[in-house]
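We modelled the chain as a single entity of 68 amino acids. Its sequence is:
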Amino acid sequence: MQFTVRLEESEEGGYTAQCLELPAAISEGDTKEEALENIKEAIQLVLEVTREQSQVLGEVAKVDVSIA
């Protein structure tokens, strides 16, 4: 799976990374490379928690959405 990540330089130094498809996935790093590695882990954790929650909530369905 591919995700879109926004990288921003922090005023305090380093970089903040946020996944646009999963707003709860946010991370940071001292360098762009470190921030990108850290956001991968954050995305995996968000997906894992989401999967666990869906098992508790009941039926889950997948839908396709088109953007016009």
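As a brief sanity check on the tokenised model: The mean pLDDT is 92. The two ends are 23 Å apart (CA to CA).
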